[in-house]
């Protein structure tokens, strides 16, 4: 626990680092990322494709799969009950009401998915199993939580009452049901809650019979099955057309307020962030380059990348016909090609000599909760000290 | 599990594919005949009648002229130190009692084929089922967990493949001996339904009261052929585990076993079933080969009957040819059904899509 937390913090992610070990080499997908999620808020994470937004969310809920590996960092969750349970055994994993999930056993971490964390994905069409009905899949999510809460002490609880043989038979033999009637009824309630008309009939339909927007609603319903405290929404509207996007965003906000949960909204759409979020983190090349309240980041961006992002949105009120794109491309995150300097330096219009050293995350002057990974956070741009092309010696992979 | 869409594309495939209908007809007939053997078999498959040995099938009766010694008072006649012979016409009669002829011991070939179908299909279906169970479990586990688990499981599968299947099967039979042989009583004969039916029609009664279930052969063919299922299941699992719905299930707290069986397996089932139909044919062939070589304890079996006819190849070809034809037709039928399933269920033909 390094920096002072806010008293409303629900989840504090610190220095989370995820690597992918691919055939081309090590990819630094998430590089020492820190963010916090407070009670009852929507936190936006914004960045270009390939900036590590999704992997950050997957890392936070421990869903990174080989060849990826979380190599460092801490994920502190506020859970008094869990903290009490581990205070004796693992004092280093407990701090007040917070527990560091990275130090807990795998079984415990899995048990948190559902009741603590849940996630909805980008493409609703591929996020449902085509061979099961939508209702059945939502009921399954309910059933998993029901069985877990029926037997909270046991890590085997998720298969409780389900030997492997019964599981196999119920899954493969047509007409056999894996889920109970209660779970099915709850699934229908959830479908109703997310605004699906005729939930009773729709529950018995297959995913291909749903439209994209309806399916995204169904996925929200599925994510709500465990009554999560934090819902990660990974580009929930990218695959949908614009009118449906607005509906889904409204739904997410309504549900968030109704349930009093927190949402981490991952998107590349600055408009969505501006419309939905209380606070925002901007990601670039696997790092959070700037974070703070929506007002602080959007009205007073410190990092030149954030400034560039905001400068590249067309503004209806501004008659200026030219947008200002950020020159160059996102680096490919291969470890061997990542420079020691600031990752953004070679695209940065305000790069200075100080940028040859990789910057730490530092508080922006005048706002302790607004931080940027940039020398400009507590310095002024000085053309005298500007970095010119010749100073990029080697290691930038060009 | 079977979506209406699947059934529609199966029907469409059937209407476009006349061969598929032939295949289904063959499989249905073979199944029917095997199940109702005590009703359809014209004669007892095991009873010898040396007076009627080597009768040709219907349509192959012929008269030949043979040189036979002239006998007087039961002894051959000599003239100038030579046996006196004469040319006589010898008839090889066929009879409707034995439409496909009789073997060297005068047993009805058709009845033996009908009873042999039981053995072949038992081995084919149970052997494939067992191979599927083992192979799919191994393949799903390997593909789902990847990494070291995958390496260990699939490399051992490769080792299995490195052996010629017949040699491996013979070695396994040597280990297992006939420990798993079972004799299943024939319910139709036991309950007296079949004998009553037969005597009402005036057919010979006294059909066998049980059928051999060659457990050793079933286990052996499964142990030889599971690798194919493992490979297909692994490939499917490798691709399906990357689907968003698998990730979604994990995000919702589902455990590995339920993800494998509920989200991976049902979506991998199509290629596995297609492989299954084709494997039944392959396993029937393997069973025939093993019976031919004398490694099966079943004494009525297509492969075994081919072996019986081998010594009569030059004079009574039908003893070997008829069971050989039975194998060919059944295997072709199963392969046609397999082709139809593959064509109809191939996702390339009917895409995913909304309504």
Automatic annotation (TrEMBL), chain A:
Database matches in Pfam families: ABC_tran (PF00005), oligo_HPY (PF08352)
Catalyzed reaction equations: Ni(2+)(out) + ATP + H2O = Ni(2+)(in) + ADP + phosphate + H(+)
Presence of the UniProt keyword Cell membrane in the record: yes
GO biological process per UniProt: peptide transport
Name of the protein described by the UniProt record: Nickel import system ATP-binding protein NikD
Keyword match ATP-binding: yes
GO molecular function: ABC-type nickel transporter activity; ATP binding; ATP hydrolysis activity
NCBIfam families attached to this UniProt entry: oligo_HPY
InterPro entries given in the database record: AAA+_ATPase, ABC_Ni/Peptide_Import, ABC_transporter-like_ATP-bd, ABC_transporter-like_CS, Oligopep_ABC_C, P-loop_NTPase
EC number: 7.2.2.11
Domain ABC transporter, first and last residues per copy: 11-310
Keywords noted in UniProt: ATP-binding, Cell membrane, Ion transport, Membrane, Nucleotide-binding, Translocase, Transport
Compartments in which it is found: Cell membrane
Assembly, per entry: The complex is composed of two ATP-binding proteins (NikD and NikE), two transmembrane proteins (NikB and NikC) and a solute-binding protein (NikA).
Membrane-topology annotation of the record: Peripheral membrane protein
Automatic annotation (TrEMBL), chain B:
Record keyword Membrane present: yes
Entry's Gene Ontology cellular component terms: plasma membrane
Transmembrane segments: 20-41, 121-145, 157-176, 213-233, 272-295, 315-337
UniProt xrefs under CDD domains: TM_PBP2
PROSITE patterns, A to Z: ABC_TM1
Domain ABC transmembrane type-1, chain residue ranges per copy: 117-338
Location(s) in or outside the cell: Cell membrane
Primary localization class, coarse: membrane
Xref: InterPro entries: BP-dependent_transpt_permease, MetI-like, MetI-like_sf, OppC_N
One Gene Ontology term from the biological process aspect of the record: transmembrane transport
Mode of membrane association: Multi-pass membrane protein
Keyword terms, alphabetized: Cell membrane, Membrane, Transmembrane, Transmembrane helix, Transport
Pfam family, one: BPD_transp_1
Family: Belongs to the binding-protein-dependent transport system permease family.
Protein name (database record): Peptide/nickel transport system permease protein
Protein source organism: Haloarchaeobius iranensis
């Amino acid at each position: 626990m390094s920096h002072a937390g806010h008293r409303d913090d629900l989840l504090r992610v610190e220095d989370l680092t995820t690597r992918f070990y691919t055939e081309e080499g090590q990819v630094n997908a998430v590089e020492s990322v820190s963010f916090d999620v407070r009670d009852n808020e929507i936190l936006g994470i914004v960045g270009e494709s390939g900036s590590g937004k999704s992997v950050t969310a997957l890392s936070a809920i421990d869903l990174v799969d080989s060849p990826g590996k979380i190599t460092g960092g801490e994920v502190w969750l506020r859970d008094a009950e869990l903290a009490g349970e581990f205070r004796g055994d693992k004092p280093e994993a407990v701090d007040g009401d917070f527990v560091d999930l990275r130090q807990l056993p795998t079984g415990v971490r899995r048990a948190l998915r559902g009741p603590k964390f849940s996630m909805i994905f980008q493409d609703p069409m591929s996020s449902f199993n085509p061979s099961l009905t939508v209702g059945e899949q939502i009921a399954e999510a309910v059933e998993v939580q029901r069985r877990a809460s029926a037997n909270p002490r046991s890590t085997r609880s998720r298969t409780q009452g389900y030997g492997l043989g019964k599981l196999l038979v119920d899954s493969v033999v047509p007409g056999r049901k894996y889920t109970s009637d209660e779970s099915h009824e709850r699934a229908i309630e959830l479908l109703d809650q997310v605004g699906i008309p005729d939930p009773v009939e729709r529950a018995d339909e297959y995913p291909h019979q749903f439209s994209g927007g309806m399916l995204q609603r169904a996925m929200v319903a599925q994510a709500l099955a465990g009554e999560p405290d934090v819902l990660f929404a990974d580009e929930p509207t990218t695959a949908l057309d614009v009118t449906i996007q607005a509906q889904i965003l409204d739904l997410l906000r309504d549900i968030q307020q109704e349930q009093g949960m927190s949402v981490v909204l991952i998107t590349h759409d600055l408009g969505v962030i501006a419309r939905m979020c209380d606070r925002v983190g901007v990601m670039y090349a696997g790092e959070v380059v700037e974070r703070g309240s929506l007002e602080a980041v959007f009205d007073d961006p410190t990092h030149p990348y954030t400034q560039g992002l905001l400068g590249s949105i067309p503004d209806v009120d501004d008659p200026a016909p030219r947008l200002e794109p950020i020159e160059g491309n996102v680096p490919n995150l291969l470890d061997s090609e990542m420079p020691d300097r600031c990752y953004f330096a070679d695209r940065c219009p305000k790069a200075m000599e100080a940028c040859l050293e990789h910057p730490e995350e530092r508080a922006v002057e005048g706002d302790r909760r607004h931080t940027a990974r940039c020398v400009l956070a507590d310095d002024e741009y000085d053309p005298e000290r500007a970095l010119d092309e010749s100073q990029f010696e080697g290691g930038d992979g060009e | 599990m079977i979506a209406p869409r699947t059934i529609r594309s199966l029907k469409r495939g059937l209407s476009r594919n006349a061969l598929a209908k032939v295949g289904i007809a063959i499989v249905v007939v073979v199944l029917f005949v095997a199940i109702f053997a005590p009703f359809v078999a014209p004669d007892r498959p095991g009873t010898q009648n040396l007076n009627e040995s080597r009768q040709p099938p219907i349509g192959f009766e012929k008269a030949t002229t043979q040189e036979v010694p002239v006998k007087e008072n039961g002894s051959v006649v000599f003239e100038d130190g030579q046996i006196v012979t004469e040319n006589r016409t010898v008839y090889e009669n066929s009879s409707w009692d034995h439409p496909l002829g009789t073997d060297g011991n005068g047993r009805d070939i058709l009845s033996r084929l009908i009873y042999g179908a039981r053995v072949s299909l038992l081995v084919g279906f149970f052997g494939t089922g067992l191979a599927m169970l083992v192979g799919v479990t191994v393949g799903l586990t390997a593909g789902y967990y990847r990494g070291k688990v995958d390496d260990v499981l699939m490399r051992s599968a490769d080792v299995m493949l490195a052996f010629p299947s017949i040699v491996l099967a013979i070695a396994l039979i040597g280990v297992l001996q006939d420990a798993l042989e079972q004799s299943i009583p024939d319910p139709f004969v036991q309950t007296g339904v079949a004998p009553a039916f037969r005597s009402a029609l005036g057919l010979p009664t006294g059909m066998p009261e049980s059928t051999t279930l060659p457990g050793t052969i079933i286990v052996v063919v499964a142990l030889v052929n599971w690798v194919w299922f493992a490979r297909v299941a692994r490939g499917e699992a490798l691709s399906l585990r990357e689907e968003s719905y698998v990730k979604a299930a994990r995000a919702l707290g589902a455990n590995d076993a339920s993800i494998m069986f509920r989200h991976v397996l049902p979506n991998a089932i199509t290629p596995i079933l297609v492989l299954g139909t084709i494997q039944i044919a392959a396993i029937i062939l393997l069973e025939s080969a093993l019976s031919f070589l004398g490694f099966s304890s079943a004494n009525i079996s297509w492969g075994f009957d081919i072996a019986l006819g081998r010594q009569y190849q030059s004079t009574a070809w039908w003893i070997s040819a008829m069971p050989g034809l039975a194998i060919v037709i059944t295997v072709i039928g199963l392969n046609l059904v397999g082709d139809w399933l593959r064509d109809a269920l191939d996702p390339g033909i009917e895409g995913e899509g909304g309504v």
